[in-house]
Amino acid sequence: MLRREAIIRSVNRHAPQLLGYALAAYEKHSALVVGDREISSECGVQQGDPLGPLLFSLALHDVVVPPSPEEQPPVPAALASSQVPADSASATPVRDSGQPEPAGAIGGQPTPPVPAQAPGSGDPAASPPPAGSSAARGAPEGALSQAELDLLTFFLDDGAAGGELDSLGRWLRDFEDRATAVGLRLNRGKCRLSVAPGATIPEALQGIETCPLDEIQHLGVPCGSPEKMRVFVEEAAKGAERKMRMIASLPDAHVALTLLKFCAGFVSVVHLMRAVGAVFDFAGIDQATQSCLATITGIETDASAWALASLPVRLGGLGLHSCADTAAIAHIAATFDGEACLSSLVTPYVLPHAMLLNEDDTFLASLEDPRLAPFDSVLEKIQDVLQARDNYGGRGQKVWSTTVHGERRKALLDSMTEELGRSGQLQGPALALKQVQIRARIQSCSGQHASAWLYGNAEADPRLWLSPAELAVAIRLRLGLPIAPMPSICRLCGTGSADVDGVHARSCFSGGRRTRMHNALRDVIADFARRGLLAPAVERSVFSNTERKRPDISYVRDGTTVVLDVAVTFPLQPSNPQYAKRAAEKPGGAATAYATAVKEGKYRGIIDNEPNPREWLAVPLVVDTFGAWCPGAVWGLAPVLAGARC
Fold this sequence. Notes:
Layout: H1 4-14, H2 19-26, E1 30-34, E2 37-41, H3 52-64, H4 77-80, E3 151-155, E4 158-162, H5 165-181, E5 192-195, E6 209-212, E7 217-218, E8 221-222, H6 226-248, H7 253-263, H8 266-276, H9 283-297, H10 303-309, H11 323-340, H12 342-345, H13 361-367, H14 376-388, H15 396-423, H16 428-445, H17 468-479, E9 488-489, E10 497-498, H18 503-507, H19 513-531, E11 537-538, E12 553-557, E13 560-569, H20 577-585, H21 589-608, E14 616-624, H22 631-645
Parallel strand pairs: 5-6, 13-14
Antiparallel strand pairs: 1-2, 3-4, 7-8, 9-10, 11-12, 12-13
């Protein structure tokens, strides 16, 4: 386990502004009490410490790249007076040799291979120094530095080192000595040594499992030959498919959908796409994701519905991103990101020989991916970055993906409305209204907080998780799929036609459904206000000049009487087509139109007639049935929810 004095000294060297925190947390040992037993915690970073990974990395950095005497800062008084030994390198060695810490040494001969000299084959002094060795590079003989290697990089406790076998063996031996001095132990059982066929393994590297250079891997991605990379991608796809089949078998559909979004499919292979690009086929993972969604919800999506489901949630989709459509952008962005930090990954000797972007076949193949061809604006941005070498500060993938998703959404809306016209099912005003309703639905689903119900929260009230039947209906309505096999007569009003899309069901005034929906939303908001100690009044007359108007919720805060008026509107209702037009223009358009036309005028005159109108505030809380709120609602709910969290 990592010695804590090494942590403190590394913090003092690299991040002295954190020294006070490190001393407070790790200068003295802490006690762990288990029943009547007490265990002294003396090594390593504390589990749950938010800075734990950073502190570990700082200490490991000084093991990987030993600081020179000139880099040693003066020891502060607090550190000099502590119990930390003056020289961590002379401290007693490993406290717990069974703890596997830094794992993963990858060595090889990325530069032209020079056969290692067999023992007794001649006088080494009589032979010229191998190309790339420390002597050939001008380093002092016997001095071990990063210059002896071609590659040296670490991510937390996973590292990769590459170079000639003799240099790699010397580096590994010295690395293990330095690691032991601070309490770490290299787990050779987790290391892999990639070498050329027939290479002689030095004694320092004996015992490490070897693998061919074309099978080399690092941080879970293949770095070898294209054929081996293809096999790796195929195996990863099979693993992703197995995971999705297991998720689909869960009894709780809403939980399964949430796991599909955050733990499977796209998110499980995005790192692989960034590494290998679009030259390999990720369409199988997309098909498995679509199949998993069908198993979870019982919904078979057509091409348009699946294209919508693969859009981000903020654009009205389900956030089940397409791997095949994203692989090229992911790899291009990762290549630019890697080029920006290349000098930190390879040694100065190798840097001039590093492959240029215009020589990388995988990068060029991603640039020519036909899935990017329709998006001229994205290709122009990529070419700008290629010339300026400025990848939006490492945000290239997000910037380009956002542009592609926006253009795909626009193209999808156009194709859906055009297909409706070509089908001939509707004509004239009915066709125009239906086309507006398609846009209104997707825009409303894109509104702020409109998709909060879609993916559950493990800490949320269990009542917020939908039953399988509720989830299936909600997904169908969001994707514009029918919720009934055929139209029928409405059982509530007895006159209207209950269409398969559920438009009449959500706009029918009979049966009291709309009133129940309104009262349920009102009661939820009032409950939050009570939790925030706002003492809300529900359906009470609070005005001095009339008793006929009873706002849904009212409370007094800082001398101001706040009146909240709740409403639920349906943007697709045929009786008010202007709401559909407003909803099609922007997210939350129908809720905003209803709040402006109805709710704001409802209380304006009453408040103006109060003795002191400035002490009153009316806030409409209008939400449409797809979840989009009017802008004022978000502002009006903020103090209610803030008080409830406290």
